[in-house]
């Protein structure tokens, strides 16, 4: 068994393939091998990448998103440094994906808001609540994670919502949170807290424009479903 990528035929080496044909022509395993750089005594980086991807029950690259640093370190050849590098790359991927969608973010378009926050939230194992804040021209002026809850519920305080909104002088706000269960439908608690936020917002002249729930590749919008109507 050949244990280094350099021992492979040159046209099959990921670096050479990238230079000759472009990065888009690399397979998932080849891309991961370039990042890993080295393998183990018994596997080169490409073979190690294939092991990591095959241990994902069909989820492929999402396996890296889902695993913690300690879980990644259980693979042969993955020490703490490589595990941290992999997690940093997944975080960069999330941030790049989010930035690329920012120009398409429209306050009145729930789908665009859901798309903007989906990559950030859909891999989280606990419920996260984000407040997205907009000015009078409906331009995004900031967003923050308000709370991190449990697998099945978030811990959201209306007080924290409006402290942030007032700090940013927001005119409109949107709440976004994820359901790790994959079920996009709102719970009774989701509906109740939405009503409270609406009522407090009216008193402060800060409008709750939407409350969006992110599930796995889908979303639920209170605005789209007419649940913010008086």
CATH superfamily of the largest domain: Cytidine Deaminase, domain 2
Find the structural class using helix and strand composition. Answer: alpha+beta
Proportion in β-strands: 5-15%
- What oligomeric state best describes the polypeptide chains here? single chain
Order of helices and strands: HHHHHHHEEHEHEE
What's the quick description here?
Belongs to the UPF0758 family. By secondary structure, this protein is an alpha+beta fold. It contains 9 helices and 5 strands.
Topology at a glance:
Layout: H1 14-21, H2 28-36, H3 45-54, H4 62-66, H5 69-72, H6 80-102, H7 110-121, E1 128-134, E2 140-148, H8 158-167, E3 172-178, H9 188-204, E4 207-214, E5 219-221
Parallel strand pairs: 3-4
Antiparallel strand pairs: 1-2, 1-3, 4-5
Helix pairs in contact: 2-3, 6-7
